[in-house]
Amino acid sequence: MAIYLGLGTNLGDREMNLIKARDLLMKHAVLVVGQSEIRETKPLGGLDQPLYLNQVVEVQTDLEPLHLLLACKLVEKEMGRESVQLPDISKVANLSFGRPPCCTPSEWKSRIIDIDILIYHQVSMQSPQLILPHPGNKERDFVLAGIRDLDPSFK
């Protein structure tokens, strides 16, 4: 199995944000080797926000899962996403499609980019820092459809 990341954006030039995120990932030792169709979706929680553009990308990297997560957070910060903190890697969390554990749906905010690790090979892990595969994978049709774009045999 491969490594899949989910990209999402609902601010600014959304298509350019996806392109820039893919380019910046490559500057952090994350090679994008495949990309799904781009899908437009409503924001989580039925919030009054602009629609999202979402895409799944297949990547290759020598980074271990937590270091890949840190690379994703660095890209979010470099692109200007607000409230991205780069804490000690032991405190970085794979949030459920951008939802901080302290917040309610009314506090979810639009974002220039959101990058989630969806699948990291066949790794299954649950820790305070990271849950793999991503717990929201089966809740979001665009994720399943995007992975199937890249791997039609994915179940």
Note the beta-strand portion: 15-25%
SSE topology string:
EHEEEHEEEH
Distance between the termini: 12 Å
Alpha-carbon Rg, integer: 14 Å
What is the residue-mean pLDDT, rounded to a whole number?
86
Count of extended strands:
7
CATH class designation: Alpha Beta
Structural class: alpha+beta
* CATH homologous superfamily grouping: 7,8-Dihydro-6-hydroxymethylpterin-pyrophosphokinase HPPK
Give the low-confidence spans: 90-106
The CATH architecture designation is 2-Layer Sandwich
Task: List the total number of helices.
Answer: 3
Predict the CATH topology: Alpha-Beta Plaits
Largest sheet: 5 strands, antiparallel
Please render the helix and strand layout as text.
Layout: E1 3-9, H1 14-27, E2 31-35, E3 39-41, E4 52-60, H2 65-78, E5 114-120, E6 125-126, E7 131-132, H3 141-150
Antiparallel strand pairs: 1-4, 1-5, 2-4, 3-4, 6-7
Concise synopsis of the structure shown:
The chain has helices at 14-27, 65-78, 141-150; strands at residues 3-9, 31-35, 39-41, 52-60, 114-120, 125-126, 131-132.
